[in-house]
Amino acid sequence: MDKPNIVFIPNVNLGNGRSTPYHYSVKSWEKWSEQHDNVKVIEWDEPIMDPQKFKITLQRYWVHDILNHNQIDYEQVLIVDADTIVHPNCPNFFEETNNKFGVTVNNGCYEWVTRSIKLWGNSLFPNEAKVKPWEYFNGGFQITNKNHIPFYIKVQEYYTSNIDLINELGKEIKAGTDQTIINYLVQLNNIETNYMSESYNLQDLFRKNLLHIPGHSWFPDELRFLDAGWVYHFNAIPPNDRHVSYWMERTYKSLYNV
Description:
single chain; alpha/beta; Spore Coat Polysaccharide Biosynthesis Protein SpsA, Chain A; 4-stranded mixed β-sheet; two-stranded antiparallel ribbon
């Protein structure tokens, strides 16, 4: 039997209620995977380090170690954020990676992106060329394989050696944790990258006028984003009554008829 491709979903309950709606994400990925013989979903809910010091977004770069520890063999691994819902008709993107590091461009708030690139770059990578905003990828959709284990070891060593500085800078910069750092590390280590369709990580839906917010939106209350991509990433939604929980539940129930 061929080794499966893994959908790895970090879903750790930190006690702040944030993970409450994420079970809809896991369910959607499980239902999607049932259509493909070579895809298996792994929900990771047990941190391997103290999340107060090592945020979950940093710990996910131990994915190869976690799978190996649990004796799970695999071909490729998608690390995907738990605030995503996948469309049941989404193509099998594992077949489009060309066995490279697969990512999608972070097509969202460019003020945030350019500020994050500048400040993290100046602080941690002063001698490295700035990451280009149009090549800056989102950390919530990354496809890796065993060829990348040496690189992931370097990433782990970098985080472990610099964690106190990273945590301190994060309080000042307020523009992400691992996402900009991993962009710089990929560039610094010349990792061959395959930029995949943005449809596999349709993000920042509010800024794209794809979320109907009563009192704000002029367009009908419809799930327009279902026609705009395959994987819906409910990030960067401003405070309102229709936040992440609302959209994840509504989207899942609409797509999977439950």
